[in-house]
């Protein structure tokens, strides 16, 4: 059935979608085929990777690349095939590692397959727990009417769609350095969905702006992105040096936002009869969420603990808060029933308790856990295992070596940002750090920025984008983001040029 406002459908896909699909397939093929060629050129003298296998020129490596490319193409077509994005990448991940294990078994080569798989799984587990807690808090805040109350407040102030576009974008840019780009995107997308009132154009453009703003803001802070944490933890850059990227990151956000501004609807959200009252415990949930973020940041910054530990401790904050709310709601339910049976007048607080629906059964933290976007969480599992498999086969190390040895640091660091829009930026940055290329602080700042903001080129290029595809399903999609990738690319190039200008002194030595 054809959707309203879409191009005519021919053979299951619209003509526009087919053209975009062919363009994307060509681009992805253009990325993967040179990768195989580079591997073939350099494998003879590389002596293999430090661990794992060197099958970059053998048929298992080519099959793994084909599986990975095929899975991502199905992710691209999710809104047309209705095949959830987690399914193809989980299938590809399992087949890639089964292929590796079978090759090792039948050839008898020595390779730590189980250790490598376990290491990849540990990386996913940390991300999974972090995401799960963040999503649970977002669901709890939604249940307590936090975002509806904010929507009502914004609508009451008469902000237009274009003003809301800039307000949410700048909030994403400002908040993400303090917490992280993923959590920022999840929270603000919930606000946009509440404020947008179902306006598809506004929601899609606002989500793109949030992704770009959150990724740009996360690039100039050690806490803003996983890749910045990796660079900081390995002492490639000092804490204060990251803030040299503030102006380039701001340019990266403002340029595409200024271009998209004219496509944002000129009207304003419709007034709602809902007063947007924050339900009982809503502000306490906000305080618990802030305490959770603070716990994760302090634990990681001062005690060297992984961020997920602080987030899981914050889950306990929410559980205890929900327990308190449930118990007190039960007492109020009992008191309300007693007053109903008597002739006494019901106290105002119990009347409000009844009107707002704050009965005991509504305070269930496990219900908020169940409402998490599990398709997104499983998608991350598939992606990290797919990329871990390709790294085990030697592709990422070979690619990083070829880039820095043949292209030079500036072009290599620029290309890494583009590749991070297709392949997860975490293993790419890990490969760069493991190589320890002889680079100036300016080049380390450049690769830190490009690996972070390059993911904004595609919706699947960053954790923020992937999470929003689940959070704003049906509004923010791969195709809606791809239509504005050219504007994001202009901001990407502009930020690199500005960095090379304002931080020129860091490129020496």
From TrEMBL:
Start and end residues of each Citrate transporter-like domain: 72-313, 370-452
An example Gene Ontology molecular-function term: antiporter activity
Any single GO BP term: sodium ion transport
Source domain of life: Bacteria
Pfam family, one: CitMHS
Transmembrane regions listed in the UniProt entry: 21-39, 59-77, 89-108, 120-138, 159-176, 203-223, 243-263, 283-302, 308-326, 378-405, 411-432, 444-464, 484-502
Family in the record: Belongs to the NhaD Na(+)/H(+) (TC 2.A.62) antiporter family.
UniProt-recorded name of the protein: Na+/H+ antiporter
Organism per entry: Salinisphaera hydrothermalis (strain C41B8)
């Amino acid at each position: 059935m054809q959707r309203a406002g879409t191009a005519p459908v021919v053979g299951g896909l619209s003509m526009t979608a087919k053209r975009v699909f062919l363009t994307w397939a060509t681009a992805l093929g253009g990325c993967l085929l040179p990768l195989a060629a580079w591997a073939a050129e350099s494998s003879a003298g590389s002596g293999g990777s430090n661990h794992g296998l060197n099958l970059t020129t053998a048929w298992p490596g080519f099959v793994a690349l084909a599986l990975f490319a095929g899975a991502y193409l199905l992710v691209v077509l999710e809104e047309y095939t209705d095949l959830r994005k987690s399914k193809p990448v989980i299938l590809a991940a399992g087949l890639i590692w089964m292929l590796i294990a079978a090759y090792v078994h039948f050839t008898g080569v020595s390779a730590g397959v189980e250790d490598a798989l376990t290491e990849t799984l540990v990386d996913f587990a940390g991300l999974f727990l972090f995401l799960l807690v963040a999503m649970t808090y977002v669901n709890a805040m939604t249940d307590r009417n936090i975002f509806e109350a904010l929507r009502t407040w914004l609508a009451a102030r008469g902000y237009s769609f274009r003003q809301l576009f800039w307000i949410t974008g700048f909030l994403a840019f400002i908040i993400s350095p303090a917490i992280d780009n993923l959590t920022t995107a999840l929270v603000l997308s919930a606000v946009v969905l509440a404020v947008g009132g179902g306006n598809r154009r506004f929601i899609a453009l606002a989500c793109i702006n949030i992704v770009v703003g959150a990724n740009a803001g996360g690039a100039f802070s050690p806490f803003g992105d996983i890749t910045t944490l990796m660079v900081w933890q390995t002492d490639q850059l000092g804490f204060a040096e990251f803030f040299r990227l503030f102006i380039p990151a701001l340019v990266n956000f403002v340029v595409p936002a200024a271009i998209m501004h004219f496509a944002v609807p000129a009207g304003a959200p419709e007034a709602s009869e809902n007063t947007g009252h924050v339900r009982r415990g809503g502000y306490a949930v906000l305080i618990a969420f802030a305490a959770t973020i603070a716990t994760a940041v302090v634990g990681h910054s001062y005690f060297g603990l992984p961020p997920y530990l602080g987030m899981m401790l914050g889950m306990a904050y929410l559980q205890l808060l929900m327990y308190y709310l449930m118990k007190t709601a039960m007492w109020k339910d009992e008191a309300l029933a007693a007053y109903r049976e008597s002739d006494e007048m019901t106290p105002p607080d119990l009347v409000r308790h009844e009107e707002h629906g704050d009965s005991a059964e509504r305070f269930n933290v496990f219900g908020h856990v169940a409402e998490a976007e599990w398709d997104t969480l499983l998608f991350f599992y598939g992606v990290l295992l797919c990329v871990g498999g390709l790294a085990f086969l030697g592709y990422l190390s070979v690619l990083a070596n070829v880039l820095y040895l043949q292209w030079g640091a500036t072009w290599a660091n620029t290309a890494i940002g583009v590749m991070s829009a297709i392949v997860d930026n975490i293993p790419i940055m890990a490969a760069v750090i493991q190589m320890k290329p002889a680079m100036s602080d300016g080049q380390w700042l450049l690769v830190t920025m490009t690996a972070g903001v390059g993911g904004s080129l595609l919706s699947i290029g960053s954790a923020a984008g992937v999470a929003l595809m689940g959070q704003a399903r049906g509004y923010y999609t791969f195709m809606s983001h791809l239509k504005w990738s050219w504007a994001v690319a202009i901001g990407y190039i502009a930020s690199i040029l500005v960095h090379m200008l304002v931080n020129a002194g860091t490129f020496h030595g």
